[in-house]
Amino acid sequence: MVVCFFLFLNCEIFIMLKSMRIILTGATGLLGRPLMKELAAIPKSRLSGISRSRTGEDIVNIDLLDLPAAEEYLRKETPGVIIHLAAERRPDQFDRNPEASRRLNVDAVAAIARTARDIGAWMLYLSTDYVFDGSNPPYAPGDAPNPLNSYGQSKYEGELALWSATNRGAVLRVPLLYGPVEYPAESPVTALIETAKAGGEADDWQQRYPTFTPDLARVIRRMIEISRDDEFLTGTFHWSGNEVLTKYDMVRLIAEYLGQNTAEILPLRQAAGGAPRPHDTRLDCSALESRGCDRRTPFAEGLRAALESLGSLTEGP
Ligand SMILES: NC(=O)c1ccc[n+]([C@@H]2O[C@H](COP(=O)([O-])OP(=O)(O)OC[C@H]3O[C@@H](n4cnc5c(N)ncnc54)[C@H](OP(=O)(O)O)[C@@H]3O)[C@@H](O)[C@H]2O)c1
User: Fold this and answer.
1) Phi, then psi, of 300 in degrees rounded to 5
2) Rounded distance, CA 195 to CA 234, Å?
3) Who's near 141: CB < 8 A, 6+ residues apart?
4) Which of 104, 129, 261, 276 is deepest in the core (most CB within 10 A)?
């Protein structure tokens, strides 16, 4: 009897994934924009994005802090796939407004995961390398998290909230993201333009693995397609770029692109102020690599695309 029930449930989810209705939260953000483009190209699927206030094609505005409104929308639409990106992802901003940030990063995940379970959807939750303390890289998905700051703690609690509601889902941890932006501060990489132009100190202590958002969008599409066509992906996965740079390295590359004098840029060889950050959270990505995820745009090329997206803001002296 129990076996029949699980067979029925798996079959029902499989059918839902075959004719796919996909809902993506955080659809207007740094990762959400390229992901909307990538997912729109999946055959036999219908895609909608959720954002708080920015608008766009196939985007609906729902404040995810209004949990009943979010649940009502998902129950009405009954997607087979929910990709949950929306979060407060700036550690310092998180600390400035911890209550609302926690509601978004933990409570909203719990509510969406419960709804996903009730409607039989597969849910993918975007998490961060900041769940690790950075003292013993590389990190495999099963290694014990030990977040150093409140943002990392909240994302880890978001992971636990997912697992306490449903086992029909996946967590994808990624490090610092960069790609085409709408304004310089939108990504931690393009935020360095000011220092590249004016000179000053840049962190040379924290090892970073900048990950190009269009590449990550391709990985997420692959995860969805695997779940539709082959095995049903569950558990925790890692993905990241494979070039290691500090922010000091990145500022120098940006300065070179802008034709600025790199002698004015100075390395800061200890942890900078603000919310504590881990030293080196290199992620072991072998599980997704073995499933055919392999596109990693070289940093120099991705950086050029990110800077070009800002147009005249990145004109030289
Ligand atoms: N960026 C990184 O370097 C990085 C690194 C590791 C992990 N991550 C994870 O990757 C995911 C995506 O990050 P991102 O950089 O693309 O984020 P982002 O650029 O900050 O975009 C945030 C998105 O969430 C939406 N949102 C924010 N608050 C909301 C609310 N209360 N209700 C509804 N929607 C809301 C925003 O809508 P509006 O545009 O309308 O405000 C926007 O679409 C996050 O889960 C983050 O933790 C990011």
Assistant:
1) -60, -40
2) 42
3) 173, 235, 236, 237, 238, 284, 287
4) 129
- What are the phi and psi torsion angles at 50 (to 5°)? -115, 135
Residue 54: strand, helix, or coil: coil
Sign (positive/negative) of CA torsion 175, 153, 289, 227?
Answer: negative
Rounded CA Rg of the chain: 20
Q: How far apart are CA 137 and CA 135, in angstroms?
A: 6
DSSP E strands, 43-168: 45-51, 59-61, 81-84, 122-128
- Residue 218 in contact with ligand 1 by CB distance below 6 A: no
Whole-number Å distance between alpha carbons of 20 and 252? 44
CA 297 to chain centre: 17
225 CA → ligand 1 middle, Å: 23
Q: What is the pLDDT of residue 41?
A: 94
Burial class (CB in 10 A: 0-12, 13-18, 19+), 258: middle
- Count of beta carbons in the 10 Å neighbourhood of residue 30: 22
Question: Ligand 1, from 23, 52, 106, 219: best to mutate by most atoms within 8 Å of Cβ?
Answer: 52
Indicate whether residue 87 lines ligand 1 (CB < 6 A): yes
pTM: 0.93
Q: Which pLDDT tens digit goes with each residue over 111-120? A: 999 999 999 9
177 ligand 1 Cβ < 6 A: yes
The CA 132 to ligand 1 mean position distance, Å, reads: 20
The 10s digit of each residue's pLDDT in 256-305 is 999 998 899 999 987 777 778 999 999 999 999 999 999 999 999 999 99
> Around Cβ 155, how many Cβ atoms within 10 Å?
27
Alpha-carbon distance 145 to 303, whole Å? 30
The answer to whether the CB of 172 falls within 8 A of the CB of 158 is no
Torsion of CA 232, 238, 241, 242, to 10 degrees: -110
